[in-house]
Every structure is written in C-alpha cells, then in structure tokens.
Write a structure and sequence with these properties.
This protein is α/β, with parallel strands linked by helices and 226 residues long. It contains seven helices and ten strands. A hairpin with a 2-residue loop joins β9 and β10. α3 packs parallel to α5. The two termini are 21 Å apart. The structure holds adenosine-5'-triphosphate and magnesium ion. The site of adenosine-5'-triphosphate has 13 residues, from β1, β2 and α1.
Length: 226
C-alpha cells in the first residue's frame, strides 16, 4: 500500500449524471481512481461510457454531483478561485475537440497559455513545436493548418507550462497512424525523462500499449484491464 503522497491524482466515489429534455443519464456511479506520481495511465471504454465526462471532472472543467478529487494532495473544493488556480498550475488539457484560439498563430496559442499563467514565454515554445513536428506552422493561424497539425499544437500548449498532470482525451483522434505513434513517442519521452504524469483516453489498444497501466471504464466505474 502506498501513502497518499504517492498519488498525484485521486478520485473518490464520483457520481455524475446529465439531465436533458426528456431524460436523465447517470454516467459515473461512484467511480474511484488513483494515479501515481509519474504514471502513464490509459483509459479505455466504449463510446458514450463517460470517459470525457471523467476527464472534464479531473481537469476541473466540470463538477461531479458528489465525490472528491485530489491533485497533488490538494483537495479540490467548489470555490471557483481555488479551482482556477489549481487548474492553471497543475493541469494540462488536450481535448477531444481541441480548441485553439482561431485569431492567434500556433506560437501565440502556446504563448498565450503561458501568459495567462504568469509565465514569460521563452525558447520552450519553439522547442515543443519543433519536437511535435509543427514548427513549420508556428506563424500560421489554425484555419491554415491541417486537423492533425492543430492537434499537435494543442499538445504543445498543454505541455508548455509543465503541468503536474497531463490529461489527454483521444490526443491521436485526428492523426494518421505514423503521426499517432510519433505523438505517443513524445508523450512517452516526457513521461520518462521529465516524470510527466499522463492520463490518456484512447480507443486504440495499440496506443494504450505505450502506457504503464490500462484501466477500462465499465458501468460508470474503472476496472483494471487484463
Ligand atoms: N450535456 C449532456 N447532456 C446529456 N447527456 C450527455 C451530455 N454530455 C454527455 N452526455 C451523455 O453522457 C454519456 C457519456 O458521455 P461522454 O462524452 O463522457 O462519453 P465518452 O466515453 O467520452 O464517449 P466517446 O468515446 O464517444 O468520446 C453519453 O451517453 C452521452 O450521451
Ligand atoms: Mg469522449
């Protein structure tokens, strides 16, 4: 058994349902999870099972109906200012539908994300774009990039401030197989060399194979994959 400090991210008894016109769907049913410091975890499960819902809760974008999330031993509260502060310092997010700012170049999308965190942009932006194979679009706006290029810029943006936890929702969803593996190599490298903790949702068994551990979402809970 590890101590609480071995875990950078935990969730306890998360419940979440959506109410919409004509119905209610309960997505998370008391979900528990614990991610170790430096771990690369893959989350798999069928479409609609609640993976993105979980990701948005862990990323402090949405709130569970009940349950507790801790990040680096901080218990997440309902207070907006605290949540914003934790999100900015601790979390890097890559969404399933990445949303770069359309009026900014690739480079400025990354730099803007640093500035809102009070970090002065430096050479790291260019290095990340280079490492991700998108240095050639650094000065272009998203509308002048391919979908895969936009996705890789979104990865650079998520990593730029060196978040404690990188949450990636199908980061390779718009990439061809070669670019997908190239991106996994980059994530694996940041995981191994910088100790970057990563939680990644994927539909691909092959890409999940880059992770240290795979969990499967089933009936609103996570079960170990075997
Ligand atoms: N705003 C909403 N209102 C009502 N239902 C919603 C809402 N958002 C999600 N859902 C439902 O909640 C369930 C979980 O959605 P979620 O996006 O978390 O699934 P997912 O596992 O990420 O799926 P995918 O693999 O397709 O991305 C789905 O059944 C979906 O229809
Ligand atoms: Mg999803």
């Amino acid at each position: 058994m590890g101590t609480a400090n071995d875990y950078i991210l935990t969730a306890k008894k998360l419940y979440k349902s959506y109410v919409y016109k004509g119905g209610r769907v309960e997505v998370l049913h008391g979900l528990d999870m614990a991610v170790k410091r430096g771990e690369f975890l893959a989350v798999m499960g069928p479409s609609g099972c609640g993976k993105s819902t979980l990701m948005h809760i862990l990323g402090l974008i949405s709130r569970p109906e009940s349950g507790v999330v801790t990040i680096d031993s901080h218990t997440v509260t309902n207070r907006n200012r605290e949540r914003t502060q934790l999100r900015r310092t601790m979390i890097g997010l890559i969404f399933q539908r990445f949303n770069l700012i359309s009026v900014l170049s690739a480079e400025n999308n990354v730099n803007m994300s640093l500035r809102v965190r009070g970090i002065r942009p430096d050479g790291r932006t260019g290095e990340l774009l280079e490492a991700l194979g998108v240095a050639h679009v650094a000065k272009r706006k998203p509308s002048a990039m391919s979908i895969g290029e936009q996705q890789r810029v979104a990865v650079a943006r998520a990593l730029a401030h060196r978040p404690k936890v990188l949450l990636a929702d199908e980061p390779t969803g718009s990439l061809d197989s070669v670019s997908g593996h190239a991106l996994m190599d980059i994530l694996k490298k940041t995981n191994r060399d910088d100790g970057q903790t990563i939680v990644m949702i994927t539909h691909s068994e092959e890409l999940a194979g880059y992770a240290d551990r795979i969990v499967y979402m089933q009936d609103g809970l996570l079960v170990d994959h075997n």
